Amino acid sequence: MELRQLRYFVAIVDHGSLSKAAVVLHIAQPALTQQLRQLEDELGVQLLHRSAQGVLSTDAGKVFYEHAQAILKQVADARSAVTQCSERPSGVVTLGLPHSISGALALPLLTAARAQYPEITLQLTEEITGNLSEQLKSGRINLAVLFDDGQLGGFASTALVEEELRFICASPAQEDGADGDSEQSLTLAEAVQHTLILPSPLQGVRPRIDSVAHQAGLSLQHVIEINSIAILKSAILAHLGATILPAAPVLDELKRGSMRSRRIEQPTISRTVVLCASRNIPLTNAAEAIRKLVQHVSQQLCAEQLWPGARMLP
């Protein structure tokens, strides 16, 4: 198996046809077809379904595609690591952000990276935390912002901030345009009596909420499970239920007054936001620079109170 075969296969899948991939790769289509056939013969499986409309990955092809992407990224990172200058880091760095964090961190980080490291191409990917963990393990991304749920032992982790979770609901019609940050608090027992719109178990804030509720002897009775922040917000605005989330993902709605948030007490709920890297795959100079930058930007946002509900950790 050769690296060029991996590049050819990824290009074919990305472009959906052999002919388009051949043009992009500057290789004759018969030669590309031969390389694909040799790869399938070596693996002993069919990777692609071919038709007049193009190609589709088989189940085996989908699995191989993920591994091929990870291998090619690690090769590119290895090449970059031995050629780039530590004083002027350059190259591509991929950082994974959970949906509920990107609203607070993504834009300030992109702005800071562009100003301080113009030769680094920072790629941000937004996913649910389970997907980010798998991508980090496989080497498809360099860094990921995750939540400390006690299951991060396989990663090199650095604590960033402690983030408060709040009870968030739609504002009554007569309150539209009012300040959505309510000083009125409620207990966790009162919060779980509502219909709650939350991520599915093991995703996002849900494990933390379930854990704190269980320790308090409470259970979530009425839950609508939605893993998309955008859909979750639409459901709240449609008065289908409330949620327990950090304030950052709904900051615009809180400012407009279409939503309001209340502090949860007895007990309070918070989560530790951490920056993770693989223990097995070394960081390039560029990735190490971005790792430090994420820490700095997070601290700056907290100091300037631009990350609602977050406080700095040592």
From TrEMBL:
Name of the protein in its database record: LysR family transcriptional regulator
The HTH lysR-type domain, residue ranges: 1-58
Gene Ontology MF terms in the entry: DNA binding; DNA-binding transcription factor activity
InterPro entries: LysR_HTH_N, LysR_subst-bd, WH-like_DNA-bd_sf, WH_DNA-bd_sf
Superkingdom assignment: Bacteria
Any one GO biological process: regulation of DNA-templated transcription initiation
Coiled coil spans: none
Keywords: Activator, DNA-binding, Transcription, Transcription regulation
Family the entry assigns: Belongs to the LysR transcriptional regulatory family.
